[in-house]
Amino acid sequence: MENKYEMILCIVNTGFSETVMDAAKEVGARGGTVIHARGTANKEAEQFFHISIQPDKEIVMILVPQDIKDKVLHALYQHAGLKTEGQGIAFSVPVDDVVGIASPAEKSQNTEKPQNTENQ
After folding, report:
1. For the stretch 60-91, what's the b/e string if a residue is b when 16 or more beta carbons lie within 10 angstroms of its beta carbon?
2. CA atoms 28, 71, 66, 57: torsion sign
3. pLDDT tens for residues 15-70?
4. What values do phi and psi take at 13, rounded to 5?
């Protein structure tokens, strides 16, 4: 059985979460959550990736329908990847269950006016 949603996590230098969200929204994501974090990378990691690692980070969590996951990941790579100032990495994990999100079909059903059930 195929999952309906994926959680994309993008870890970027502090100050680049808006860049991440703008790129994700351009390809269909609707929103995300930013968590402030601190990296623990060492000098060996800096040498391996050939970058200077800033310890203050932001993690952007974006829940997306599975069919746009690849587009979002590609957009994040282009706008906030390791070769940009944001020096971001992004990955996705499958999501088994989601509550609190209505599909477009469910939204239209919820906004229909109830039928008159009075005795005729």
Report:
1. bebbbbeebbeebbebbbebbbeebebbbebe
2. negative
3. 999 999 999 999 999 999 999 998 876 777 777 777 667 789 999 999 999 999 99
4. -60, 150
d(Cα 93, Cα 45) in Å, to the nearest integer? 23
Alpha-carbon gap, residue 90 to 72, rounded angstroms: 10
pLDDT computed for residue 104 by the predictor: 55
69-80 vs 17-26: helix crossing angle, rounded to 10: 140
- Confidence (pTM): 0.75
Q: Which of 37, 39, 76 is nearest to 59 (CA)?
A: 37
